[in-house]
């Protein structure tokens, strides 16, 4: 038979092409099994190493400590905000954390704007104003 990769004639029962080293067994044929050529397959192992260097796996404990922070009054909230800003713009942080921090920062801004607009519309509410006046009188 003829090797489909390099075109050289090889023995019919050969498992590998002696010329280019491509697998000739039906089940092992990359192009049949995965729709890829062996050339692409040999290049593939480089990708996990590159992505591992780019963003290491962040442990459960690390995420837990990160996500519990904004629920700790005052100190935790400030630390959380400072951390997300640093993570968003630091060059040394992993891409995974950077992406998360940027999304978190955007969510924080949206929530803050919503709270301010809610609070300002509440202030204009006559019912709230009279309630505040009653409260002030109680305090005196
Ligand atoms: Zn070949």
Task: Please characterize this protein's 3D structure.
This protein is an all-alpha fold and 140 residues long. The protein starts with 29 loop residues before the first helix and ends with a helix.
Lay out the secondary structure.
Elements: H1 30-33, H2 38-43, H3 46-54, H4 60-68, H5 75-89, H6 95-124, H7 126-139
The structure holds zinc ion.
Question: What is the alpha-carbon Rg in Å?
Answer: 31 Å
- What distance separates the N and C termini? 101 Å
- Number of self-contained structural domains: 2
Count of β-strands: 0
Based on secondary structure, the structural category is mainly alpha
* Pattern of helices and strands: HHHHHHH
Ligand list: zinc ion
Q: What would you call the shape? A: rod-shaped
Q: Note poorly predicted spans.
A: 43-53
Average predicted confidence as pLDDT? 80
**How would you characterize the largest beta sheet?**
none
The proportion of strand residues reads: under 5%
Q: List the total number of helices.
A: 7
Helicity level: 55-70%
Short description:
With 140 residues, the protein is mostly helical.
Salient structural properties:
140 residues, 2 domains, binds zinc ion
């Amino acid at each position: 038979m003829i090797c489909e990769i390099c075109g050289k004639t090889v023995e019919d029962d050969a498992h590998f092409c002696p010329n280019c080293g491509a697998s000739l067994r039906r089940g092992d044929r990359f192009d049949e099994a995965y729709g890829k050529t062996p050339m692409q397959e040999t290049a593939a192992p480089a990708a996990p190493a590159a992505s591992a260097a780019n963003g290491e796996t962040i442990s459960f404990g690390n995420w837990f400590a990160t996500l519990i922070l904004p629920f700790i009054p005052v100190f935790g909230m400030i630390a959380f905000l400072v951390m997300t800003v640093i993570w968003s713009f630091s060059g040394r942080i992993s891409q995974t954390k950077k992406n998360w921090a940027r999304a978190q920062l955007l969510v924080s801004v949206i929530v803050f704007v919503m709270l301010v607009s809610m609070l300002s519309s509440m202030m204009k509410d006559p019912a709230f104003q009279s309630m505040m006046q009653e409260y002030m009188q109680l305090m005196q």
